[in-house]
Known about the structure:
The protein is an all-alpha fold and 307 residues long. It has one domain. It is built from 15 helices and no strands. Helix 2 packs across helix 9, helix 3 runs antiparallel to helix 9 and helix 13 packs antiparallel against helix 14.
Amino acid sequence: MANSTTVKKILAWIKLSRPPFLSVGAFPFILGTLLAWKLEGVFNAPVFIAGMTAVILIMLSTYHSGEYFDYEGDTLSHQMHKNRFAGGSRVLQSGALSPRTALWTSIIAFAMAAAIGIYIQFGLQTGPYTILLGSLGIFPGFFYSTRPIRLVDRGVGEIFIGFCYGWLPVASAFYIQAGHIAPVIHWIGIPIGFTIFNVIFLNEFPDYAADKTVGKKNLLVRLGIERGALIYSTAAVLTWVSVLFTLKLGVSLKALYLFLPVMALSAVLILMVMNRKYENKRTLEVLCGLNIAINIGTTFSYIVAYV
């Protein structure tokens, strides 16, 4: 019986960590490492392993603190819809784990990521800006939902997420391998940032009513659904423009060929969002899922092009 309870708690913890969503930070980090190898001819396996571990811990800290501090809103969202991409993991609402467990695992993951960051800079000697780059990810991630800072309630949380899951992992991975950041890296991170901004932003659509009810003041609540649809579409178009711009900086044309199907899917989502298809709960869930595919597809366009 004890073993069965332990297994259930482990499975609940895994679900709380939302493994599929770890990919949105892991793949850009892989891209940055690949670019360091292709552009600079460097690859340090211990640095990559330690860096990837820190990135995953930062994401776990972010997700778990969100589960704790968004408990009330996620509980209400669970009552209003069954969207798999919004409203949290629902593990805490099921009683499988206590809210305090999520808080403490978030803090522990934060501390472990910080310790690894110190080891990477001073133990592996990756350069003087290593801890700074790590701090740019760990603090906005942890305080995205954590009170009293709670970036998500300040109308800028989504922008920080775009930065932390776009430019930052690509640039950080490149830096800890090469010791500097090549100019093209800055621009490659931009379209990835726009797509992850849209992932977070569209995932707020199912939670809109619940978020308004509990007084959550994220960007969508501040703007309203109709303006939110316009912001989503604008960010999608800016993704296309920024991908095309990277070609002028020496990125292989293969990246564009690989991105074209992603771009076509993005155009379909723009049309559906602008035509208010999000009003159907089932359709909105599909849109949220496809939106993640756009983010991953954009990153993979660059990965495959350089491979």
